Amino acid sequence: MYEDIKDVALYVRYSSANQTEQSIEGQIRVCTDFCQRHGFRIREIYADRATSASKDIEKRVEFLRMIKDSEKKSFQAVIVYKLDRFARSRYDSANYKYRLRKNGVQLISATENISNDPEGIILESVLEGMAEFYSAELSQKINRGMKESAYKHNSIGGVIPLGYKSEGKKLVIDEETAPIVRQAFEMYAEGHSVAEICRLFNARGYKTAKGTRFGKSSFSRMFHNERYIGVYQYHDYRAEDAIPAIIDKKLFYQVQARMKSNSKASGQHKAKHFYLLSGKLYCGHCGSKMNASSNTTSGYTYYECYGKKNLHVDCQKRNLRQDFIEDVVIRDAMSLLTDENIEQIAEVAIRTNLHDVEDSTDIPAIKDRLRETTLSLTNIVKAIESGLAPETLVKRMAELEKDKKTLEEELKREEKKVIYLDKEQVIFWLEQFKGGDIEDDDFRRLLVNLFVNSVTVWDEEDDHFKVTIAYNLSSLNEKTYHLKRGGRQSDFNYNA
C-alpha cells in the first residue's frame, strides 16, 4: 500500500491548552511508531499548538508551511495522528488534500483506516473533483488571453532562460550570458559529464537564470530547451525560428542523442505505480485488508492478504492480479453513471455540505442573531411610526443598527471560509464523467472514490473467485460477481 513512500513529514496539532485529546508529544510518539513499522524516514515535524482545525486556517502557520514545503518533493506523505488533526472542515480537507496530491504527496492517518462515512466520502470526492475541474476551467480562460500573446511570440512570464533577456516583450540574446549556454552545449557534445561542467561553471562563478549556483538539474532543463534553437512553444502552439537562436540545430541534436543514450544506460527513471483499490480491498476469508505489492524483478503487480502475510493468520487467500480486479471494479463503477445515480449523488453532496456548514461553523448562530436583531428593529420602526416611541427606544434602534451591521460583516467573513455547492453545478460536473477515459488514473480514482465503499474477494473452486462491491450510495445494493481468475476482459460477466 505504501510502496512508493520513503520520506514523510508529520503534522501534529491540538486546539487548546486544556484539551484532553492526545498531546503534541503523544501524537508524535504514535506517528513515529507508525513510521518505524512501515520503514518511513521522518524528514520534518510540523506542529501547531492551540489552534483550531475548523476555522482561521491562516493562523495555522506550520500547516501552511507544510503545504508549501510539499512543492519541494522532499517527502511523499504527510502522517497525522487522526484525520481531524489535518482539518475538520471537509472543504478545507478536500482543498488541501488536492494540493498535496498535485505535489505527489499522500495524507495518511496513523490510527484510522477509513474515518469517513459514505456520505462524507461522496461530498469530499465532489469537492476535490470540482476544485480540480474549475481550476482547469479557470486555467483555460487565462490561457485564452495568454495564447493571444503567444501568437505574437511575446514573452509571457516565468523565468527567462539563461542567455536571453526581454526587450519590448520579446526575447533577445543576452550577449553576456549566451556564451555560457554555448559552452555548456559544446562541452556536453564533446563528451564531458554534467558533473564536470557543473564544477567548472561554479568554479568560474557562473550563475543560473535565477542567480543561483549550478546543479545537475540545471543542465537537464537547459539541454532540453528548444528555445535555444529558435522554437517558440506555448502548450499546443509551436513556431519555428520565432526566437533568435543561441545554439545551431546540429549541436542541439547531438546533445539530445547523447542524453537519450545516457538515459537508457542508467535505467534509473522508474515510474511510480498507482494502486486504485488501496484501503478499499478486503480478503473475504479472514477480513484483513488486501495490500498492494509488486515483484521488482518481473514487474508483476498484485494485491495480497495482509493477515496472511503479516499477521500469520490461517488464511489461504491467493494473490490477486492488480489489473484484473481493478478493471472489474472500474467497469462496474462506470456502469453506475446513470442520470438517476448522478441526481442522487448531487443531492447527497448538497445535503451533507449544508449539514457540515451547520455543524462546523458559526454561520447558523450568526444568522439567528441577525434575524432577532432585524425583528427588533422592525418592531421599533413600527413603534416610531405610530408615535409611541420614547427617546430611549430611538437610542436602542441606533444600537441595533450598529449590531446588525457588525453581524452582517461577521456573516460575510464566515461565509468566505466555506463553499456552498450548487446542485446544477454538481450535476454538470458529474455528467462530464460519462465520456471519461477509463484508462486515465485520475478519472479512475475519482470514479471509484465517488461510488465504491469497499470490495471484498473470496477464492472459489476451479480457479474462480467471488467479488462483492459495496457502494457509498445507500440506495445501491451490494453487487456480487463470480469470475474466472486471469480471464480476458471480454470474458467478464457483469450481471450479479
Quick rundown:
With 496 residues, this protein is an alpha/beta fold.
Give an account of the 3D structure:
By secondary structure, the chain is α/β, with parallel strands linked by helices. It has 16 helices and 15 strands. Strands 2-1-3-4 form a four-stranded parallel beta sheet, with helices on both faces. Strands 9-13-14-15 form a four-stranded mixed beta sheet. A three-stranded antiparallel beta sheet has the order 10-11-12. A hairpin with a 6-residue loop joins strand 10 (290-294) and strand 11. The radius of gyration is 29 Å and the shape is globular. The relative contact order is 0.09.
Low-confidence stretches: 17-21, 265-271, 487-496
| Percent helix | 40-55%
Most strands sheet: 4 strands, parallel
Largest beta sheet: strand ordering = 2-1-3-4
Q: What structural class is derived from the secondary structure elements?
A: alpha/beta
From the N-terminal CA to the C-terminal CA, the straight-line distance is 29 Å
For the secondary structure, the number of strands is 15
- Overall mean pLDDT stands at 80
Summarize the topology:
Elements: E1 7-14, H1 24-38, E2 41-49, H2 61-69, E3 77-80, H3 83-86, H4 90-102, E4 106-109, H5 118-151, E5 164-167, E6 170-173, H6 178-189, H7 194-203, H8 216-224, E7 232-234, E8 237-239, H9 249-266, E9 281-283, E10 290-294, E11 301-305, H10 306-311, E12 320-321, H11 322-335, H12 339-360, H13 363-385, H14 391-416, H15 423-431, H16 441-451, E13 452-459, E14 464-471, E15 479-484
Parallel strand pairs: 1-2, 1-3, 3-4, 9-13
Antiparallel strand pairs: 5-6, 7-8, 10-11, 11-12, 13-14, 14-15
Helix pairs in contact: 4-5, 5-12, 5-16, 6-9, 11-16, 12-15, 13-14
